[in-house]
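Hey L., structure's done. Input below.
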Amino acid sequence: MKFIKTKGYGIILCVVIAAVATVLGGASIGNIKLDVIGAPVFAILIGMVITLVLPKLALSDYMKDGIKFTSKKILQWAVIILGFSLNLGTIAKVGMQSLPVIICTISTSLIVAFVMMKVLKIDGKIATLIGVGSSICGGSAIAATAPVIEADDEEIAQAISVIFLFNVLAALIFPTLGHAIGMGSEGFAIFAGTAVNDTSSVTAAASTAEEIYGCGQILSTAVTVKLTRTLAIIPITMALAFYRMKKSRDESAGNSFSFKKVFPWFILFFVGASLITTVVGMLPDSGFSVFYMGKYVSLMKWMAKFFIAMAMSAIGLNTNIVNLIKKGGKPIVLGFCCWTMISIVSILVQVLTGIYTTNL
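Output:
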């Protein structure tokens, strides 16, 4: 009862915003489909606008605790639920061909983010979020990484905004560009899966490319490559977690150090959820396995997206949009450099491995 009283109103507000954002994310204006923007971006924008118009709302006594709970705990739950949508065996098998491209693009983005952080003197947490968001899977990677490095809401909002900008540009530009420079249909599918950040934008770019190329398999291949990229959440967040633990241990030298408080346990639950789906996927076909891999996994994927939208709405409610715009210059430059280098490396590796002009 105390939980409902202290956090209920804030959580309900985030649920309403997430519901509106989900509807907008699946809508279209004429021939323009808004899924290129996605529910998480709509959620964070609505939250920021509400706080701009009603600045005292997010800080009110009956709202702030629920909003804080949503931006932290619900964000972690979203990542755990996301694990139920990943069959590690299937993704590894289908995505093996794209693995060299994935490894090279992820490495490139992280290196560029680190170098640009030093050159532009950007806050380390924002650089990390933009680096992993660009290299792995946009909002989902940021959602998984933010609690590990203890990023605040404004830093998360900054990273999401940068990723969103280049997602939209990629979805609009890449299909025509890929066809114009002679990229094959399979080459473009791998390009979209590795050079576009967020799943919604990968879907938008690949769907447009299917019409341009006259090939009906680009979307499924691109999404599989994208899901293979998503697996990188596990090693990268674990590496960041151990780095943070080492740093915390050094800072706590002579004082008590709590491994339990520092370690991001939700990542282990994410891995466990993925393993459950993987094991079920290996079972002989039965009523249970068919139901699980069909209806249940789809439901978990939808819930993960909705929870991420809820968390983004809470982050938007805690973010000053004016300050965000003022501080946006350097992160945008960083995001542009990551996006450009990922695109170039994706094409170069495909050329070297002979994928570039391959057709599905």
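The beta strands are 28-29, 32-33. The radius of gyration is 20 Å.

-- N.
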